Amino acid sequence: MKNLGLAAIAIAAMLWAVAAIVASELFAAGVQPFELAMARTVVAAIGLSLLYQFGPTSLRSPPAKPLSHRWFEWRLVLLGFALAFVTVSYYVAIDRLAVAVALVIQYTAPALVVALTALQMRQWPAPTTIAAVIAAIVGVVLVSGVLSSQLALNRLGLIAAGLSALFFASYTVLSESVVHTYGAIGVMFRAFIVSSLFWIGFQTAQGMPTAVFAPANLPGILFVGIGGTLIPFSLLCWGIQQVQASQASIAATLEPVIAAALAWLWLGQTLDLAQIIGGILILLAVVSLQRRSMNEEKQG
Asked: What is its subcellular localisation (predicted)?
């Protein structure tokens, strides 16, 4: 099951990468980042509500443990806010910084997750996990192209990028803490309800998001909400249920590799040698985790 968990997270990373390209096209069409953050959250919440109410019972809670008698708890509220803020902080970061810099800072999250997990468990992570974290972060730096660019840094952008990494790590760790009680769909359903209420309240104060409802933008909005939010976040949460949060966060660093490859194929953007090496490092990090999972399953 651990290999399936890593595979689910890899698929989630691929969907996030595709959704990032779709989102950039929506921004060019006049959709504002805050409007898209609200729309994707509401679409995902509606879809998860339908799954939770009418889907199989196995989707609502893990079969090994019955659903908690508490329908809701404070960790789910924190998870909902983490989901709300991780996207918008990243959008602010890429508005103020080069995308490469924002991406590098956000994907320091695996190191944060490993550190938080080590503190919770009061023991050092396995050497293979530490090596995978280092390889993944170096790989993200190379894939982003940050070392080959002349970059102007903005203080607000740097703060937003740092917050995006913190929220990325937070929802990974929080998901792990509740997924064994509520199940992947149960966790995401509750968290996205919290996130949706926040964004609806925020957008109500800003006025009607007319660009979101433009017929030409609706297919992209629906894809970002379903294919770029509902499905990948649920896959991530289910994957965390199978593997540790630290391993899940490292596997998620496949996103910039896939995004770079899609930009090459879809947008005609070229990849230099450093980016290719960075992609190989990230792939090696994920493969090392997969091999470790296979060995653990054999020993178990």
From this structure: Cell membrane
